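Exercise 7.
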Amino acid sequence: MKLKTILISQPEPTNENSPYTRLKEKHNLKIDFRPFIHIEGVDAKEVRKQKIDFAEYTSVILTSRNSVDHFFRLAEEMRFKVSDSTKYFCQSEAVAFYLQKYVVYRKRKIYVGQKSLTDLESVFKKFGDEKFLLPSSDVLKPATPNFLNSLGINWTRAQLYKTVVSDLSDLRDVYYDVLVFFSPSGIESLLQNFPDFEQNDTRIAVYGNTTVKAADKAKLRIDIKAPTEETPSMTMAIEKYIAKNLK
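Solution. The predicted structure, written as tokens, is:
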């Protein structure tokens, strides 16, 4: 059965040289992008319910662009002036670079990990007397709190935004050969939008162990899986599937 159409449950990449562009051109595919979930910020009232007072914290741990946006959004909403002496612990260079949207980079104390917070272990320990705030969504992978707890530092989680299922009702009568998921929330969105979904000939592609577990729990047949040693990216996994099954 030929593979012609793919729906990626994420926003379309802004990079013109995206691997999906090359995949599309090489195999003459129709690839569409549609986020199955989206982010909504909570309001100041909800933050106060969590008994969070930004003034109590001297350091902020930032793990994503969303955490940056919503920390500064709520600081403004709550009329809190973020101190120039605030220290920022950024998970990656991409997050640190994005922080420049709100602060003058060269005038702030910013510590940057290569790819994860664990790269900053020695820096966290150096500032063990600080009070750390972790802006996050309602969904937080256990690896982050486990790591912070292992350091023995004084940190608090603030849920400043949440993951919400997007309305996909316009896709009810649209068929794709492959549906690609990158998170359990994407699987949840599919089932909430289409509770009567029947997989039939639709191929399901999943990225990451937690997404695999969510698909298994939903009794979906997984046809394409990444990352693996042979296919570390989703585009490579799809290409391997095409080569193996659609000769």
